[in-house]
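Quiz preparation item.
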């Protein structure tokens, strides 16, 4: 048997997490799906907790740090507009699966809280810069929370929103926030 890369282990864990939840994340199950032995697992990860840490760190980097980094070089309304598309393009099923995992795991909960705090803080920053009005920080914070909590709700909504429904909702939410913050 060949050895899978660390990234292959993590990507397969993401797929399994979405399909079956955190309880299915075992070296044996993932190794079988990758066609490798459990020894390949221990080549990359010292323990199950270390594996979980790598999964959560990769998710954080990809879904939060990566989105912010793509967006940081933009300015003004362009930055806000692009953020709307970057954010809605992340893997929502993975976000939902990790949010469910965080209900039962302090390790996952710590990452979920970090992701939520970082995303919300960044959204507040973008709103503050994009909506240069006399609005106070509380109003910007409320607008960011409404947008972010709506985002989380859409991720979990059943039946799932399709592309057109998501786009319509995203645009409508932007209009509501824009009116609330008093621009245009």
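Solution:
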């Amino acid at each position: 048997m060949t050895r899978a890369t660390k990234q292959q282990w993590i990507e397969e864990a993401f797929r399994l997490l979405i399909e079956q939840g955190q309880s299915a994340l075992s070296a044996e199950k993932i190794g079988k799906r990758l066609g490798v032995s459990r020894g390949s697992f221990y080549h990359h990860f010292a323990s199950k907790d270390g594996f979980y840490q790598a999964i959560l760190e990769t998710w954080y980097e990809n879904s939060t740090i990566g989105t912010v980094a793509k967006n940081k070089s933009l300015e003004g309304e362009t930055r806000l507009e692009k953020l709307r598309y970057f954010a809605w393009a992340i893997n929502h099923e993975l976000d939902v699966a990790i949010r469910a995992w965080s209900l039962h795991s302090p390790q996952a909960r710590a990452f979920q809280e970090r992701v939520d705090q970082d995303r919300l803080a960044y959204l507040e920053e973008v709103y503050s810069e994009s909506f240069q009005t006399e609005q106070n920080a509380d109003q910007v914070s409320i607008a960011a929370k409404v947008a972010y909590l709506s985002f989380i709700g859409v991720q979990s909504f059943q039946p799932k929103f399709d592309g057109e429904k998501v786009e319509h909702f995203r645009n409508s939410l932007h209009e509501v926030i824009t009116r609330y913050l008093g621009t245009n």
